[in-house]
Amino acid sequence: IYRQYNEVTKLYTYKGYGELTNINPELVYSVYCDLEYRKKWDGYVNELYQIRDEAERSIIYWRVAYPWPMSHRDYVFERRSRIFERDGKQQWCILGKGLEDDSVKCPKNVIRVVEYEQTLAFEPTDSGGTKVFMYYCDNPGGALPTWLINWAAKTGVPKFMDDLQKACHRYDK
């Protein structure tokens, strides 16, 4: 995991590289994109569903359960995904970006996060696993101290990757 400090926002952006052994990229992609299954394996998901599907993107609503005493956060974001070939290997790419969208009202006592970006890319390894690249940045807003936001992101990204790997092993679709 690497991080880069942003002088303006006082927050970090994160990049992570790793390998999921004995899990092929198609499975990782399926597990990540299956919103119903994500509700089962991601303990932070409070609510998650597709608002609408458009030509090249899906619009998704995601409410995240923050621990007490913090307020929950919610996101409306676009997700674009593609599978392409490079140097004879298939690659899977998923892009997420926060939106200002009033189609879902922000619930009382929940803070809407608009500044959110995530990129995930997967490609097969020669040993039957998956190389993973992840870029993540968000500004959860509210009155949280930046040290707490940065600590949560620093520990949350590796935990997410561990949870994703476990979810892949249990996926049965």
Can you walk me through this structure?
Helix 1 packs across helix 3. With 173 residues, the chain is of the alpha+beta class. Helices cover 24% and strands 44% of the residues. The longest helix is centred in the last third of the chain and has 25 residues, at 146-170. Strands 1, 2, 3, 4, 5, 6, 7, 8 and 9 form a nine-stranded mixed β-sheet that branches. The protein has helices at residues 25-33, 35-41, 146-170, and strands at 2-5, 12-20, 45-53, 58-64, 72-86, 89-98, 110-113, 116-124, 130-138.
Q: Gist?
A:
The protein is an alpha+beta fold and 173 residues long. Helices cover 24% and strands 44% of the residues. Helix 1 packs across helix 3 (146-170).
Q: State the end-to-end CA separation.
A: 30 Å
Low-confidence stretches: none
User: What would you call the shape?
Assistant: globular
| Overall pLDDT confidence | 89
- Report the total helices: 3
Computed CA radius of gyration, to the nearest angstrom: 16 Å
